[in-house]
Give the backbone structure.
Amino acid sequence: MTKTIINTKDAPQAIGAYSQAVRAGDLVFISGQIPLQPQTGEVVSGDADDAIRRVFDNFMAVCTAAGGTADNVIKLTVYLTDLSLFPRVNSIMAEYFTEPYPARAAVGVAELPKGVQVEVEGILSLAV
């Protein structure tokens, strides 16, 4: 099976030894997106809602670069340093996705890169 690297300037460039996304067959594995401004690589300023929206904007930019839409997303994993943000993630996620929603897990973690509070990774199927 061939793997194809997905990269877009509409999402932050990788800050480590990884790709924004990798396609294998009809599946695309999107690396964790944090609230970085794509143009500067700086953490977004503002409140938690601004950060969560930036994360989903970044995620969707990679999704689009891979040839998909929100309808192609089959699995998300949300990492939060503060699980009290979970209701905000749910509310904002509903701005990006419609029913039937993708499968999802939410995981509380001690820390995330650059001291951010939220990170989202996911899988899309281009066969959907």
The longest helix spans residues 48-65. The longest strand covers residues 73-80. The mean pLDDT is 96. The chain has two helices and six strands.
